[in-house]
Amino acid sequence: MNSTTHDGSVSLDFPSGDSNSKSSQAVLPDPGASNSGLSKSKIFAFAAPATGAFFFYASMFSILPAVYVKHFGLELSAVATVVLLIRLFDGITDPTIGYLADRHREAGGSRKPWVVCGGLGATTACYFLFYPPETVTMTYYLGWSVVYFFMLTVSEVPHMTWGSELTLDYNERATVFGVRYFTASFGSLIFYAMPLLPLYTTSDYTPEVLQDGLKVGVVLTVIGALWAVFHAPGGRVTKSIKGDSFGLFIRTIWENKPFLIYGAATLCMALAYGMWFGLIYFYLDAYLNVTGKVAAIFMIGHLVALVLSPYWLVLIRKTSKAQAWLIGVSIFCSQLVCMFLIEPGTSWWVPALFVTITYISFASNDIAALSTLGDIVDYGRCKFHKDRGATYYAVNSFLFKVGLGVGGGIALSLAGFVGFDPNAVSHNAYQVYGLQLGFIGLPFLLTLLGFTFIIRTPITRRRHQIIQRRIESRMLVS
Q1: Dihedral pair phi/psi, residue 476, rounded to 5°
Q2: Residues 49, 52, 57, 60: what is their CA dihedral angle, to the nearest 10 degrees?
Q3: What is the pTM of this model?
Q4: Which of 262, 264, 257 is nearest to 380 (CA)?
Q5: Among 8, 13, 6, which residue's Cα sits nearest to residue 255?
Q6: How far is 465 from 461, CA to CA, in rounded Å?
Q7: Residue 317, exposed/middle/buried by CB under 10 A (0-12, 13-18, 19+)?
C-alpha cells in the first residue's frame, strides 16, 4: 500500500517478496551519471519521428478547426461537436493500443513497427483532411479526424514508452524527452512558418498552405521513420510475471497511486491547454485584430521555446522534474492574467510576447512531465512485476487528449453560445466576456487545481534511485 506523509505527499513501498529489497540500503549511484551509454545521435534517431508527427499535430487543434470554419463553411458548433466526439473515441482506442503494444513487447516485439505504421497512417488521414471535397460536411471532417487520431495513438503511445525504455537514469531520461520535445517543436515550427514564405500572397493559414504542407509533412515523416528504424536502439525491457488477467490489469493502474496523482494533474492541465488552443487563433485573429501577424506570432513562440528548451534540463538537474513542471505551470498561469489585460489595437508584439511565454511553459509538460511518467512506469514495474509502460502512457495520452478535446470543445461552444463571430468586424461586451471566459478565466482556475496535484508528485530523485536499483537486476537487453 501507499501511505500519505505528514506533508501531504505520497510515500512509496514495494512488495515484501522483492528479492532485491536490500538494494534500497545500498550505496546509490550518482544521479547525474548515465548508465546506458546513449549517444546523442541515437537519442536524436529515436526522437526523429516526432518531427513529422508534430508537423501535422500542430494544425489539428489551433489551425485546422479555424480553416474549416473560415474557408470550408462549417459552423463553429459543428467543429466543437467533432472535437468532443473524437475524444469519446479515444476513450476506447488509447487503452486498447497501450495494452496491445505491451503484449507485443512482452512477446519479444519492438516498438518500432507501431511508430512507423502509425505515422504513415496519420499522414494518409491528413491527405483527406487537407484536400477535402468542394462540399465539406461535419461527417467528412469527423470521419477522417477519427482516422487521424487513431493512427496518431498507434504511433505516439509506443514512441513515448520507447523513450522511457532507453534509460533508467533520472537525468538521462529527462534528456531523452528533452530531445523529443526539440524534434517535435521543430516540426511544429516548420508548419507555423509556412504562411510566411514568399510563395503566398497572404500570411494567413489557407487551404493552399495546408495542401503544400502535406508534401512537407510526408517528407519529414518518411525521413524520421527511416532514421529511427535503422539507427535508434530498441530499448530494454524487464522480466515480467507470466500470464495476465483483467483484474491484474486494473490493479496495476488503480493501485499505482503516483500514477493516479499524475493523471489528475494531467487532466486539469490538458483541459486548460485545450481551452487555450481552442480559442488562441480566434483571440488573436478576430478579437485582437492581428490577422496578418498570427503566423509570425506562432513561429516566434515555437522558435524561442525551442532555443530555450535545454534550460529546462538544467533546471531539472538543479532541482527536480516536479519542481520544473510546477514552474512551467506557474508561468502559464501568469501569462493568462497578462493576456486578459491586452486590448484590441495594442501592438502585435505584446500578444506575441505572451504567446511566446506560453510556448516556453508548454516545454515543461513535454520534458519534465513526460519524463516523470517514465519514472512512474518504473515504479509500476517494480511494484507489480509487470511491464505496463505503453498502458500507462496510453491512459495518460487519453487523459491529455480528452482534456484538450473537451477543453477545446467547451471553449468553442462557449464562444458560439455568446454569439462570437470570427468573421465579424466588431464584437459586443457580452461576446468578448464569453471569449475571455473560455480562453482565460476557466483555464486559470483549472491550472490552479492542477498545481495542487503536481505539488504532491511522490517520485523524487532519491526515490527513483531506489526503484532504479531494483529494476536493473531484472533488465533485459532488447
Answers
A1: -115, 145
A2: -150
A3: 0.80
A4: 257
A5: 13
A6: 6
A7: middle
Nearest to 362 by CA among 187, 186, 152, 185: 185
Q: Crossing angle for the helix pair 349-364 and 294-308, nearest 10 degrees? A: 40
Grid coordinates given for 273: 491547454
* 411, three cell numbers: 471553449
* Rounded Cα–Cα distance for residues 125 and 150 (Å): 10
Cβ pair 382, 18 in contact under 8 A: yes
Exposure string over 112-123, b if 16+ CB within 10 A, otherwise e: bebbbebbbbbb
- Terminal-residue alpha carbon distance, the chain: 32
Q: Give the sign of the dihedral formed by CA 406, CA 408, CA 412, CA 417.
A: positive
CA-based diameter of the chain, in Å?
Answer: 70
Nearest to 474 by CA among 403, 385, 368: 385
107 HSE (CA, 13 A, CB side): 8
Contacts of 361 (CB under 8 A, 6+ apart): 328, 329, 331, 332, 335
Q: What is the pLDDT along the chain (478 residues), one digit of tens a residue?
A: 445 444 455 556 555 444 343 333 333 333 333 445 689 999 999 999 999 999 998 888 668 888 888 888 888 788 878 877 887 787 788 889 998 999 898 888 899 999 999 999 999 999 999 999 888 899 999 999 999 999 999 999 999 999 999 998 999 999 999 999 999 999 988 998 888 888 888 888 889 999 999 999 999 999 999 999 999 998 877 666 666 677 877 888 889 999 999 999 999 999 999 999 889 988 998 889 887 788 889 889 989 999 999 999 999 999 999 999 999 999 999 999 999 999 888 899 999 999 999 999 999 999 999 999 999 999 998 888 888 888 899 889 889 888 887 898 889 889 888 988 877 878 888 999 999 999 999 999 999 999 999 999 889 888 998 888 888 776 554 4
401-430: buried (b, 16+ CB within 10 Å) or exposed (e) per residue?
bbbbbbbbbbbbbbbbebebebeeeebeee
Phi then psi for residue 110, to 5 deg, are -115, 155
| Residue indicated by cell numbers 503566398 | 200
Q: DSSP code of 284?
A: I
